[in-house]
Structures are given as structure tokens and as C-alpha cells.
Amino acid sequence: RSFAQSLLGYLGFIFWGTAVAQAFGGVLVILMFKNYRYLFQESYLSLPGWLALATALILLPTGLLAVSISVKCSRNKQGTLMYLLLLLLCLEMSSAALARSYCIRTASQLESAMGYLVHQHNWTCSQDPGSSPVDVMQRKLQCCGVHNYTDWLKAPPSSWYHPACVPESCCKEKHSHCGGDLGHVEQLSEEGCLKKLEDQLCFAMMYMFWCCTLLCILELLAGVSNGILMRHQPFHDFSIL
User: Residue 183 has what DSSP assignment?
Assistant: First the structure.
């Protein structure tokens, strides 16, 4: 009983720390889909992020109850803690399942969405920096094309004109005078945008997945500890409940 009481107190403090980690993961996922909303048509893809924020808010009173019960047991607090742990378990299992499935699903959709944007992008060999979604993405990720700069050669502005350059947004930041000239390939970003965005997306989703998995284990431990304490103080008058 004393071990369960001590463990519950420690878990209460851990819940406060994991609330911050969950909030960080939720904001990361929400901002990811907000910044690249032109690539993801479905608005519900940010759902794991909102579930993580809801989990973080519920973890705060859950941690407070766990610490309070470890100091002084109360039947009302123990019952409330059990309900909160059950609610958190449902939220985190849902969030983990969604994050895992979205990581696989969205990665397969990115290539076609990026290819369409590259094909539809109007550009010329000029010093115009451009402000289209493709240009913004290439500057932010420091990438060029879907797989590499040769993707721009497959999608020229017109069928008869084959430019000797790529959009200026493909240039590396350190080359301020780069105009996207193919004669100076070393001034262009080597990596394509697909791999970089896939890596960012999977990092955010897998971060959410493992955070939720770890929290599920901690909450099961808290539930078992609370159950041991409740067993030593049974609800004689309400045993039917």
C-alpha cells in the first residue's frame, strides 16, 4: 500500500511534465498541417493535434488528484481519478492510432500533390522571387522540386520552351545572387521537397504516437496503484457501483 501511494505521487508529478510534452506535440502537428494546407485537402488531419491538446489539459487536474491522493486518500478523489484515467486512456489510444495511420496515408498523397503544384506553377528565368505556395515551400524547406531540381525540367512553362533555369526559390540561402541558373547547379538545393516534408511529417506523427504510448503505460500504472489504495478502503456502502 505504501509503495502504491508513493508511486501514485511520483506519477502525478510526471503527468504534469508529460502534459507539456503532449501540448508541444499537439501544436507541432496543428502547425504542420496549417502551414502546408495547400498540400492536404482534408481538414480533419490535424485531429491528433487537437486530441493531444485536450489530453494535456486533462493531465493537469489528473496529476493534481494523484499527488493529493498520495498524501491523503479520499473516496471521492479516488473515484474521480479513475474516471479521468479512463478518459485519458481513450483519448491517447485514439490519438496514437490516428497519428500512426496518418503518417502512412499522407506520405503516399504528398508526391502527387507536390507534382501537381510543380506542373501548374508559372515561372520564367527572371529575378522575380515569387510568392506562390511552391516558392514558399522551397524556401522554407531549402529544397528544389519534388525529388530534385530536374523535376522542373519535366514541367516547363510551355511545350516549346525549355528553360536553362529553375525557380529562384530553389537557390541556397548563402548564394544571394543565384538566379536559378542550371549552369551553377552547386548553388541550388540538392534535396527534393518530398523527402524533407515526409521526414517532418513522420517525425511529428511518430512523436505523438510514442508520447501517447508511454502515457498509456503510465496511466495504467496509476490506475493499478489507485485500485490498490481503493481496495484497502473499500466502498462498503456503495459496493454495487
Answer: G
Determine the Cα–Cα distance for residues 213 and 222; give it in Å rounded to an integer.
Answer: 14
Answer for the pair 166, 145: CB distance below 8 angstroms, yes or no. yes
Exposure string of 204-240, with b = 16+ CB inside 10 Å and e = fewer, is bbebbbebbeebbebbebbbebbeebbeeeeeeeeee
Question: How far is Cα 172 from Cα 163, in angstroms, rounded to an integer?
Answer: 20
- Its sign, for the CA torsion 149, 151, 155, 159, is positive
* pLDDT greater than 90 at residue 234: no
pLDDT tens string 154-199 = 755 544 445 567 787 888 877 667 766 777 777 788 888 888 888 8
| CA 180 – CA 149 distance, rounded (Å) | 10
How far is Cα 209 from Cα 10, in angstroms, rounded to an integer? Answer: 23
What is the torsional sign of CA 72, 75, 77, 83? positive
- Please state, in angstroms and rounded to a whole number, the distance separating the CA atoms of residues 238 and 227: 15
CB 204 within 8 A of CB 25: yes
Distances (CA, A) of 81 to 6, 15, 54, 55, 62: 16, 13, 16, 14, 6
Closest CA to 3 of 175, 225, 212: 225
Cell representation of residue 167? 525557380
This prediction has a pTM of 0.77
The helix or strand, by DSSP H or E, that contains position 3, with its residue range, turns out to be helix 2-35
Q: What is the pLDDT of residue 118?
A: 77
